[in-house]
Amino acid sequence: MAHIEVILPIFNEVKNIPNLIARLDQVKKELSPSATLSYLFINDGSSDGSTELLSQLHSSRNDIRVVHLLHNFGHGPALACGVSHFRGDLAVFMDADLQDPPEAIPEMFLAWKNGSKTVVAERVSRSESNKVLFNTFYYLLHKVAPQLPPVNFGTHCLLDASVIQRIKTLKEKNRYFPGLVGFASPKIEAIPVHRLKRLEGNSRVGLKGLIQLAITAFLSFSSLPVRMVSVMGLIASLAALISGTAIVSIKLFTDLAIPGWASTMSALAFGSGIQLLCLGIIGEYIARIYDEVKERPLYLVEKVLETSAPHSLSMEESSFVPKIVRI
Ligand code: UDP
Ligand code: MG
Known about the structure:
The chain has eleven helices and eight strands. By secondary structure, the protein is an alpha/beta fold.
């Protein structure tokens, strides 16, 4: 019998947790006796009552583990914490707002039983409003990073313990989770799902967070942005050379007056714009290099609520996180 641990990052999801558990419990029944299901909640500094609810649930059930983080670190670090604390034969990662349907798990499990080590929920359709934005992002990303699997997926996936083991060795700080999954998997099987609307509340990641994630995806899986800087520099230099030659020729060989101020100013403004854009792109790289060299942990654990299961936390975790208080 295989043991599946469902890893759920939580940031202020008190209204979604009861529904989430009810739907996961249904799946658990459906999978029995071929698989057992337990839940690992990563509480990413919630302040809406989720912390108390998760602690209550932990004390009333024996299939729930909770890692309470010290404060809010973000979705990516919460997933990284799930990777470090995972225990089982296979892990299912999913968001807690029920945008990822728990009902896809049995099909994913079947694919695993048939030999797939990485099974992802491919978002073939969406109920969200910003569809065009998402589709453009995936289109561009798969164009510039051909090493990534051309599958439109986010968090929702089932990973064999061997894949998790490989992801644990990837220590980068700016993490694009689907990219890391692709990097650590020899092959990916995709199950089609419809991406639903968030059940309760508004997006916790938000548009700003999504834009940051998109930048991380491009910068960590493609060198195109920094190459663009050189290409833009080249284009601007060529344009300056051509217009310079034209101006000098007009001055030397004709009696025409060179029309002045407006064209000079617009050329200057254009040039400064390009320079600032290039500085911005290089700045993004420098900020990320700084993040990496700081060697600050991605997250800090406040406490871990274990089940009475016989295994203990992996040793790797204790070297990564400065302080763990077990109760
Ligand atoms: N989340 C988290 N930390 C954060 C933001 C979000 O753990 O700082 C969790 C959140 O509770 C949810 C999942 O990550 O379970 C995805 O968040 P959200 O639904 O806001 O992302 P979106 O679907 O809008 O991209
Ligand atoms: Mg969501």
